[in-house]
Specification:
By secondary structure, the protein is mainly α. The chain has eight helices and no strands. Helix 4 packs antiparallel against helix 5 and helix 4 packs parallel to helix 7. It is elongated, with a radius of gyration of 20 Å. It starts with 13 loop residues before the first helix and ends with a helix.
Length: about 170
């Protein structure tokens, strides 16, 4: 006779459960409308766990933004590489449409919480903070430079400086 009991949760996975719960709740309700108690209840941990693993709700929020930005960057770079490889194989120029698809995909990918990523980016645009700046410097800015380089390959008549400001307008 086999037991169908719920698997025991180990203390080591409490941190990950908090991250998963926070991301889910932030995506549903927003950061400001999600309490630490909401997160810990959803994660099945005690309230002190957030402070133990993250020091504060703000540090937890930064980690969620960092994880979303990292996942978006990995996805975008993979798509960018595929688009560039396809263009080389077909001996054609890189298509702007492929790059736009690559850029917007994380916002629409099922289960990705693209709207939450967009809210974090908008928060940075409207009210930049040290926290949002760290995420941009580590993940989003390096991708932007790669992406702008790829944009330059789509139309050689457009200068890199023009692509920079076009990118800024597109993302602003």
């Amino acid at each position: 006779m086999t037991s169908q009991a719920t698997p025991r949760r180990t203390p080591g996975d409490a941190r990950e459960r908090i991250l998963v719960a926070a991301e889910l709740l932030f995506a549903k309700r927003g950061v400001d409308k999600t309490s630490t108690r909401d997160i810990t209840t959803e994660a099945g941990v005690n309230v002190a766990s957030v402070n133990y693993y993250f020091r504060s709700k703000e540090a937890l929020t930064e980690e969620i933004f960092m994880r979303l930005a990292e996942r978006a960057t990995v996805l975008r770079l993979a798509d960018l590489s595929k688009s560039m490889d396809a263009a080389k194989q077909d001996k054609r120029s890189l298509r702007l449409e492929d790059l736009v698809d690559c850029f917007i995909r994380p916002y629409f990918e099922p289960g990705f919480h693209g709207a939450l990523l967009a809210r974090f980016i908008l928060q940075h645009r409207l009210h930049p903070s040290e926290m949002t700046q760290r995420v941009f410097v580590q993940h989003l800015d390096p991708f932007a430079m790669e992406f702008i380089g790829a944009l330059c390959l789509t139309d050689k008549r457009v200068t890199r400086v023009e692509w920079l400001w076009r990118y800024s307008l597109m993302t602003g």
